[in-house]
Amino acid sequence: MGNESRRLLLLVIFLLAIQLRVNSVFGICEHSFLDGNKLYNFTLASPLPSFPHGVLSEDGFYKVAVNETVLWFQLCGGMIFNHNPPKCAECSDCGGPSRCGMECSALVAESAGGYHVCTTIGHVSSTDVSILDELNPFKGVIVRMSSSGKEHNCSLSVSLLCDSTGAQGPDSMEKLGTCEYATTLRHPSACATIIPIHGNGLGWFGTLLLVIICLFGAYMLAGTVYRYYFLRVHGIEAIPNLDFWVSLPLRTQMYVSSLVRQFRGPSASQGGSYSQVNF
User: Fold this and answer.
1) Main-chain phi, psi angles of 77, to 5 degrees
2) Between β-strands 153-162 and 180-187, what pairing exists: parallel, antiparallel or unpaired?
3) Whole-structure pTM value
4) What residues are paired with 129 via a beta bridge?
5) φ, ψ dihedrals at 268, nearest 5°
6) Around Cβ 80, how many Cβ atoms within 10 Å?
7) How far apart are CA 87 and CA 83, in angstroms?
8) What is the CATH number of domain 26-196?
């Protein structure tokens, strides 16, 4: 393989890797909710005029601190620390001490004996998006991240509230269980795009027509199989009631012509006329 072919192959692999990464982020950050004839579509990573990365933090992470507990997380992607990275005694499943926080989507640090112990509570691969309130789809969505460890299972639930005026928070954090955390964030990306759906379904007439067509097809198939294998009728003659189907177009034409004559009435050429008779 020549150098040009190798370069082309590497370029194709690189572009495919980028495409897979982009598709995975957008797939994680999308959620649709059908309510009647309306489709509520949430695309959290779609760019907005004031937020080119959607709900993703441009800093590479969100941070909230309450008392001796610090929470870092990124929505719909892994965290990136260009400044002020977490300093933890343990960070084995999220990048290690030198790259702590770089290989997970949510990390919590709690003070223990004068130093911070970090616990991974979320990964990008285990991110799930669901509707916040089915009775009020305009309210927003919940982004839930989870992480399974040797000692316990952890999770972070971020309530994304729809706010078209701008982004706010997170300002608070709540510990729901042994290793379960929750926080709230207001963002325009949490506002649904409403897509009206018209004419969904076949309706009663379309359903009835489909049933009739299916029954007719089943009748023709069963009749043909019976005549072919049991009555030993081969060729086109195996079709049941072939004479009736062949004459059906002519019968239909005659019936339509009869109806037309009835509605038109007697034509002028067929009307009564008198001719002069010479005696």
Assistant:
1) 180, 175
2) parallel
3) 0.60
4) 143
5) -65, -35
6) 14
7) 12
8) 2.70.130.10
pLDDT in tens, 172-219: 999 888 889 999 999 999 998 888 776 555 566 777 888 888 888 888
Between CA 165 and CA 51 the distance in angstroms is 12
Q: How many CA atoms lie within 13 A of 1 on its CB side?
A: 7
* Rounded mean pLDDT, 74-90: 85
Asked whether 156 and 144 are in contact (CB, 8 A), the reply is: yes
CA atoms of 148 and 229, how far apart (whole Å): 62
Which helix (H) or strand (E) segment holds residue 262: the answer is: helix 242-264
Q: What is the pLDDT of residue 15?
A: 37
> Of the ranges 12-16, 88-92, 170-174, which one carries the lowest mean pLDDT score?
12-16
Write out the two tokens for 244.
């009736």
CA angle 76, 77, 80 (to 5 degrees): 140
Token reading at 239: 């079709």
Per residue in 65-79, pLDDT tens?
Answer: 988 889 999 998 899
Distance CA 105, CA 78 (A): 5
